[in-house]
Design brief:
Layout: E1 20-26, E2 31-32, E3 38-39, E4 62-65, H1 74-88, H2 96-104, E5 114-119, E6 128-133, E7 141-149, H3 158-172, E8 177-183, H4 187-195, E9 199-203
Parallel strand pairs: 7-8
Antiparallel strand pairs: 1-8, 1-9, 2-3, 4-5, 5-6, 6-7
């Protein structure tokens, strides 16, 4: 009987650090069809019509929630939004208070740039969210920020709709260049972004 191989102590185990990646999207590199819709370059066949000529429609069975400051439902929507972000990013400890301090208190806060969706049979429950964020006032770059889809509602086209809606908002408000950051282990998200015309620009320096 051969001897069992010794087990390496925990301190000797090597773990790959999580890397943050930057992706960029440039409207001027897209091509337009006869209807004026933006299309991907011919080399990328994974998706049609990246940027429609009008506001993107959510998938069947879902509808967009329009966030408005001062709306009596704002508190409930913020709580539902925080629960969704907590599900998607559990290491960030999302709460309504964090949404207030991270988003609503920022100089670039714009409720119309927040993309939220609910299912038609569950009004008020945020099942998908994303933001057309701007880091600083007057910034020429837009950002795809905090995209999340509930685990119960994935593979319905909501992720693609969120990204298209954010791109549409940025372009129609004068921004032709958009970026995002995500961790390297979020393979489904990376596939989505690449399919929407984003280019991987490499690891973000920390």
């Amino acid at each position: 009987m051969s001897a069992a191989e010794p087990t390496a102590p925990a301190s000797a185990l090597q773990f790959s650090p999580v890397m943050k990646l930057r992706f960029e999207w440039h409207a001027d590199k897209m091509q337009s069809d006869k209807n004026g819709d933006q299309w991907l370059p011919p080399s990328n066949k994974s998706i049609v019509g990246v940027l429609p000529s009008g506001p993107p429609a959510p998938p069947a069975g879902y509808r967009r929630i329009q966030l408005r400051d001062g709306d009596p439902n704002t508190a409930a929507l913020s709580a539902s939004w925080a629960r969704l972000l907590e599900e998607g990013f559990p290491d960030c400890a999302w709460t309504t208070e964090k949404i207030e301090s991270s988003f609503r208190s920022a100089p670039t806060w714009n409720p119309s740039a927040v993309v939220l969706a609910e299912h038609v049979h569950a009004p008020g429950e945020v099942v998908a969210a994303g933001m057309a964020w701007v880091d600083t006032v007057g910034d020429e770059w837009g950002r795809v920020h905090w995209v999340a889809v509930s685990s119960k509602h994935r593979r319905q086209g909501l992720g693609q709709w969120l990204v298209k809606s954010v791109l549409y908002h940025h372009v129609t408000t004068g921004r032709r260049n958009v970026y995002l950051r995500t961790e390297d282990f979020r393979t489904a998200a990376i596939k989505l972004y690449l399919g929407c015309g984003f280019v991987n620009c490499g690891v973000v320096a920390t």
